[in-house]
Amino acid sequence: MQVFIRRFGAGNEVRTRDLNLGFAVGVSLILIGLGMLIGSFLYKIISKKISFGFQLTLGPISAFMASILILLTLIYSTNILVFIAFFFFGFGPIIWTISTVSLRQLVTPSNMIAKVSSVIMTVTFGARPLGAAIGVYISVNFGVNSCIFAVFLGFLIQLIIILFSKPAKLKNLSDAEE
Fold first, then answer.
1. Rg, the chain, Cα only
2. Within a 13 Å sphere around the CA of 170, how many CA atoms are in the beta-carbon half?
3. Residue 32, burial from CB neighbour count under 10 angstroms (0-12, 13-18, 19+)
4. DSSP codes of every residue in 73-117
5. Is the confidence at residue 116, as pLDDT, over 80?
6. Which DSSP symbol is given to 171?
7. Are 56 and 168 in contact (CB under 8 A)?
8. Is the Cβ–Cβ distance between 166 and 103 less than 8 Å?
9. How far apart are CA 39 and CA 28, in angstroms?
10. Rounded distance between C-alpha atoms, residue 62 and residue 68, angstroms
11. Is residue 178 over pLDDT 50?
12. φ, ψ for residue 167, nearest 5 deg
């Protein structure tokens, strides 16, 4: 939460007992949810307009763009950059989620879907505390601004990996069966 508060001008050092989460943090969280809601409602339309491979890259592209906006808050301290970023953090990744689940269900044998899904959920939820610990380490040793730069680098690496993957080149979901 310190990153949020620093971006909203609450001061240099914020202690847990001093957290005063304001309107801007609430708006940011609303916008990530709104991005996910709009993305999921528009998925059917989006999936007819763009290739399946691009659907798979839309999440990482969107998250990378959002990380650039958050990085820009180090130069331009304005809430609007954060608001737009959080909308993109919701919109693109929900397209990614729908697409990757569809792909996984297609390529995974039916008797293995539950097992594969449980492993993915475990790894996903297990990575969150690890990421938080890394964020704390970076913040304590290199400052909060370094955390923002680390997020940018992480999304850049993810985007590069996805762009050069075989699934990113799929025209249709059915092409994955081959």
1. 18
2. 21
3. buried
4. TTTS--HHHHHHHHHHHHHHHHHHHHHHHHHHHHHS-GGGHHHHH
5. yes
6. S
7. yes
8. no
9. 16
10. 10
11. yes
12. -60, -30
- Looking up tokens 């339309």 gives 45
Single out the residue of 66, 92, 20, 64 nearest to residue 161, CA to CA: 64
Could you count the other beta carbons within 10 Å of the beta carbon of residue 4? 18
In this predicted model, what pLDDT tens digit does every residue of 55-67 receive, in sequence order?
999 999 999 999 9
81-86 long-range contacts, Cβ below 8 Å, gap at least 24? 82/7, 82/8, 82/24, 82/28, 83/27, 83/28, 83/31, 86/28, 86/29, 86/31, 86/32, 86/35
pTM recorded for the entire structure: 0.81
Polymer length in residues for the chain:
178
Q: 176: buried, middle or exposed (CB in 10 Å: 19+, 13-18, 0-12)? A: middle
Q: Which residue is it, tokens 């130069």?
A: 75
Which contacts qualify for 81-88: CB closer than 8 Å, 24 or more apart?
A: 82/7, 82/8, 82/24, 82/28, 83/27, 83/28, 83/31, 86/28, 86/29, 86/31, 86/32, 86/35, 87/31, 87/32, 87/34, 87/35, 88/35, 88/62, 88/63
